[in-house]
Amino acid sequence: MRLKGKVAIVTGGTKGLGRAIATRFLDEGASVLCAARSPHDIDLLVGEMPDRVAFHPVDVTDPASVDRLVEAAVERFGGLDVFVANAGVNRDGKVERLAAADWTAMVDTNLNGVFYSTQAAARHMAANGSGRIITVSSCMSSRVAIGAAGYAATKAAVEMFTKTAAIELGRKGVQVNCLAPGVLDGGMGEELAGNKKAWDAYSPRFSLGRAGRLSEAADGALFLASDESSYINGHVLEVNGGLLWA
Question: Which position among 116, 151, 202, 231 bears the catalytic label?
Answer without folding.
Answer: 151
